[in-house]
Amino acid sequence: MKKALVTGGCGFIGSNLTKALVGLGWQIDIVDDMSNGHLELLSDLNTRVLPNASFYESYQNQENIKRLSNEVLVIQDDFANDCMLNAIMQGQYDYVFHQAAIPRVSYSVENPSETTDTNIASTVRLFEACAGNVRRVIFASSSSVYGGADILPTSETTAKNPKSPYAWQKSAIEDYAKLCWHLYKLDIVCLRYFNVFGPGQYGDSPYSTAVSAWCHAIKNGLECRSDGDGEQSRDMCYIDNAVYANIRAANFFKAFKGECYNVSCGDRTTNNEILGYLKDKFGKRVKVKNAPERQGDVRHTQADIEKIKSQLGYTVQKRFWDGLEKTLEWWGLNV
What is the pTM of this model? Predict the structure, then answer.
């Protein structure tokens, strides 16, 4: 049985990934500080919750506690807590899926030091513990490292040009991932997510993406915020695609040595197109409020996914419009 730690496993991407891994027979532990995590996202799994990482060592040492084969252990704490790092160094895990971060461009612009502490310093501590003790780390990076590339679709050979603290933080860890192979032989693969959305992504937090924020607004009779002229476009990546990429990367037979891969669909959709569709579908329930363009945002994104397709056998599991319908169903808006 493969054993893995999913950091941020009570969050949107982490919870969906956990469900998929459990379904494949993996034994999963989650560590999540619950700053943006929700236990209800794991409600259909068999879970045991520990209130902090200090309980983990005693849990491991209690012989009378029998763990069920499909039980997910949820540790509510910082992923860089000493107790968690010790567990990694003791060889408890074959793989670490590092999904935890303080996300969102706008939040990082307003809170650069806080986000740098978590997204860089704590991540380096995590990788240090993993060196020599796990087979592979699958790191959740971001398309924001490109900084709004002029060439679309954008391939992994495009020079990085981060334009926000969040994008710079992801870029810095990508660079460090290559050092980790050369210095410590720690195998890390970096997955550059493009605008992941889908069921389990709430819309009422500073980390919300446009689709989840608009679903939340329609559900609750609020205004849908539209930034700038609405013609900015994104390569919208339904959650199933991100989960599939993580699993393909974990199971790959060769060392990655810090290699980076785009993860998305290879097309793009404008905010105006999405809002127009929602207006046609829900009529007067969609109330739009115009707002200034957000600082640090890029104009367009579109992934070149030929590398991940050819090297990892990745295929797009669900495209945007089908994924949007699934998302609307999760919000109860298609009833």
Answer: 0.95
